[in-house]
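Sample entry (637 residues):
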Amino acid sequence: MALPIEDYGIIGDTHTAALVGCNGSIDWLCLPRFDSQACFAALLGDESNGFWQIAPQGDHRCRRRYRGDTLVLETLFETDSGSVTLVDCMPIREDHPQVVRVVRGERGTVDMRMDLVLRLDYGRMVPWVRRVGNMLVAVAGPSGLALWSPVKTKGMDMTTVATFTVTAGQEIPFVLTWFPSHEPAPRPVDARYAIEDTAMWWEDWSSACTFEGPWRDAVVRSLITLKALTYHPTGGIVAAATTSLPETVGGARNWDYRYCWLRDATLTLEALMRGGFHEEAMDWRDWLLRAVAGDPSEMQIMYGPAGERRLEEWEADWLAGYEKSRPVRIGNAASGQFQLDVYGEVLSALHEACLIGDPVSSIAWDLQVILADFVSQHWRDPDDGIWEVRGPRRHFTHSKVMAWVAMDRACRMSEGFDLKAPVERWKKVRDEIHAEVLDKGYNDSLGAFTQYYGSEALDASVLMIPLVGFLPATDPRMKGTIEAIGRQLTEDGFVLRYKATEAHAVDGLQGHEGAFLACSFWMADCLHLVGRHSEAVELFERLLGLRNGLGLLAEEYDSVLKRQVGNFPQAFSHVSLVNAAYNLSGHGAMDEQVPEEVVRALRSRRGWRHGRSGTTGHPLTSPRSTLRNRMHPRRGT
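Predicted structure, serialized as tokens:
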């Protein structure tokens, strides 16, 4: 049976990621990409669906940590006879994805056991296993997996097991490598050097963080997590490493989050820039430009890590679901929804990028003009909203606010960068949207902005109103909204997206869900903006207390069960943590936080793309490329 969500850690190679339980079991891993088929799927089923556990035999206790500011995970197992450390990592990929695990003896002697159950195609397909030299090779369909270790293994009931004893000072390595099944299995890496090189890579990367102040450790860990969810070849950032971890344990609110959402664009870019990670921010911007290119009427709310558009949703009916939470969904049908707010997110992100990066290219500006014109023609249309409801379309207040953002940022771009556009017409549309939201999105009897026009339901998405500049937080209407949400839309002090049980006709689903963590961080931002700083800090620190022992957050928190729920780790939660930490620390606007020398360097290099297309790397990132070049020769056996 899968562990509680908060009992997992993440390791990754910036192409995919694995979830490692505190019991030493890898229960989820998709290879070779985030959105590929899983070879370990016990997280969403049971042991028969694939896992890889290395742990002491018999009773033991454990504690775990990341090695400094890295993604190298260390789990210390204590037994009556001794102790061992299990070190897990995925080396930064050069050719093939690999999982490296080393058992290191710390004290006395410990009897260990390894169980490897490979099940491809999301836990359904048993591979053909054979021994090739000193490796165990498993092949099924397009995928091959090779296990190397000095420990003798044996087959048992379609699984691979091994028992061994570790003494103090001894190190026992295990290396699992994925490869295309039509190619020969590659040689394994040297496990000890791979771990050290991986730790060096992450230490070098995280050392670029520019945040100084309270909560630095939480900010750095969140930024590392965000980097771990980045698909390096394209710069896309997936929402989470998992699919179908439920918003309600035992319920049906289970979605596939291994894709890139446009609605995360502005906040993600701000978090990266505020952290000092300008290369990653520009990579995300460039992914955004490529993904949304084309007819604006066909712009999707999400795309695959490389910009794929076809994300058809289907159900893996052979999987029992996390703690019986069915169905298990692969793909996401919400990709075909119309969400007006994403146009505001895209135009806002591109505007923010231009404040600190290269001036906008003619191609990028042409795209923005097309998007702004589309919004000017369609902002009156109902949509599916930020929460991707599967009920009827509505005139959601947040969607209209983001339509205003789209027009506002387009106007700012044109005037601020002297770009040709029908600015006066756009300003007229912007003002019309603003007036309509104030007239129809605000409920006088409630003294608050509501979920959609004419509704009496509250929705946490309207907390974005002051954060995007639509109204100041001190406006009486906004202050009333903050107070109403604080009174009526919280559980144990944490903010819900909306009251799911009361919104069945809009939501299209049944059942309860937990508090949405990003919304709770937005509430902390709003409390700070209205001068209630001590309350904002108190809420923020309570949210930090929800993180697991490794500093990771899922999408939601169930205050009744006192546990994390939803997909894990969730990029949106960590992005919102970073931005709230900056806001509560008294930093200024994003563009005010970027050192002027960085702005000059970025603007002096048009179209730089570190490590891609043969272009010159950015000077700020050249130490990383130097490190990678130094590390490369050390790879191998």
